[in-house]
Amino acid sequence: GPTNMALTINGQVRNLRLEPRVTLLDALREYLDLTGSKKGCDHGQCGACTVLVDGKRVNSCLTLAVMAQGKQITTIEGLAKGDELHPMQEAFLKHDGFQCGYCTPGQIMSGVACVSEGHAKTDDQAREWMSGNICRCGAYPNILAAVREVAG
Ligand code: FES
Q1: What domain of life is recorded for the organism (predicted)?
Q2: Distance in Å, CA 23 to ligand 1 centroid
Q3: Staple 114 to which of 64, 78, 93, 129, CB 3.0 to 4.6 Å?
Q4: How far is CA 147 from CA 27, 31, 37, 116, 133, in A?
């Protein structure tokens, strides 16, 4: 049956009462109104649902909300600081790293992890890391350029 849980999302503790089988993605989208994380495939194939859990990239559709308790969850909504965009968001704008935009939140979260975890040192390395994030519009070269720029 429903279980009480407390999730720390973008630095804020949110209390929820959910069935233990509810995914982190559904908790964010359906119960917390954080709809930036997208549901593309709902089974770990597209990356549209990517968030950070304790700084690590996670497919939120494959993660149970209850398992994310006590961890720092960061979603696309938490990246900008007030009016100041995160450098990865700036880079996506500069390099036109999106077309329809559906995959963009996941791409950006994956890009942030790519850089912070040190997987963006070469084009090939970054391309490999980002390969779990599908873009139907084929904006891959621009996405790669954005990630590589932030990597320096
Ligand atoms: Fe999670 Fe596609 S919705 S990987």
Answers
A1: Bacteria
A2: 11
A3: 129
A4: 28, 31, 19, 11, 13
